[in-house]
Amino acid sequence: SEATSRLMSRLGLKSENICWYTVFNQREWEFKEIFGVTNTTLVDLMSVKQRDKAQNVESTLRCAFQFLGTSGDTPTTADKSALFRGNFTPNFYPQRFVMKDSIYEQRLEVLAI
To answer: What is the mean pLDDT of residues 35-40?
Structure first.
């Protein structure tokens, strides 16, 4: 899909890094097939020697969990205008927090932190 292509480009993922996995959903108490990338791959991407690529991955991951600017820092007024204004559609929240929801489904203990 277009969203997958954009994410792969932004994170520097190769097609072999993103595929189908079988995971156990602790909330629904069943195994599910999900399309995604492993934590190990993300950690590897953040530890590359090219600091600008590693920072790009880190800022993208930070933005998946809270409203931040493109650099992964507190959003400026310009960031708020460019990134958020007019983008609050019915699909906004489900798409924005898909990583957080996946963590909650697979690791319930995270909710206790």
So the answer is: 86
Backbone φ and ψ of 18, nearest 5°:
-120, 120
Listed in order, strand segments (DSSP E) in 13-72 are 19-25, 30-36
- In total, the chain counts a number of residues equal to 113
* Phi/psi of residue 30, nearest 5 degrees: -155, 160
| Token duo for residue 37 | 């990338």
Residue partners of 82: CB distance under 8 A and separation at least 6: none
pTM of the predicted protein model: 0.65
Round the average pLDDT of the chain to a whole number and report it: 79
Cβ-based neighbour number of residue 60 at 10 Å: 17
